Amino acid sequence: MRVKDQAKESRILKATRDLVNEIGFKAASMSKIAKAADVSPATIYLYFPNQEALFIENYIQSKRIMADDLFGKDDLSTFTVKDATEHLWQGYFKFMRKKGDIYSYYTHFSSSPYITSVDCRDIDPRFEQLFEVVQRGIDQGIFRPLHWTMYWANLIGPIERLYRDASIFHFKIDKNVQQSAFEMAWKSLTI
User: Considering its fold, how many domains does the chain have in total?
Assistant: First the structure.
């Protein structure tokens, strides 16, 4: 049995991310991924049983990297609801800004049919904190009683738009813009 080479696996995952970001899932064939990763197509199958598994593993790794930026080692149950929410918001912004290729892959995957194969709570237990912050906010009468997906959409929607517009219109998102955007998102969630 062949020993898996971590560097090769990393190249395959990165080549997959780059291709999906550039040409989409449908056009990112195993042969194109292999060529971009400088491996043979057969080599990919030593690491991943099929293309869907490769795409899903890339997403799982993206979510784990996102969790590192969102939560780190912090226990959000020790934060106030507003501080925990801002911590999540700032962490998501950091993830987008510092890991743009991974963020881009994450958004492509999240909008694809593959997303139905994955539950973020199965990926990293730290995501449970997101649900707990939302429930705590509802229980304390701070948040409107919305489904957590509405909470997440209202929280990250503004920052995703800012990030996208900053790259299109070439403006800098400074601390004041970040804080203003967070306050607007916060107000959309609170009673």
Answer: 2
> Above 60 in pLDDT, residue 41?
yes
Half-sphere exposure of 18 (CA within 13 A, CB side): 12
CB 136: neighbour CB atoms within 10 A?
17
Note the pLDDT tens digit of each residue in 77-130.
999 999 999 999 999 999 998 999 999 999 999 999 999 988 766 788 888 898
Domain of residue 76, residue span: 62-189
Q: Are residues 132 and 164 in the same domain?
A: yes
Integer CA distances (angstroms), 132 to 71, 100, 128, 166, 188, in order: 13, 27, 6, 32, 19
Can you tell me which residue has the tokens 């890991």? 99
In angstroms, the CA 122 to CA 63 distance is 10
- DSSP, collapsed to helix, strand or coil, labels residue 140 as coil
Helix (H) or strand (E) holding 123: helix 120-123
Rg of the chain taking only CA atoms, in angstroms: 19
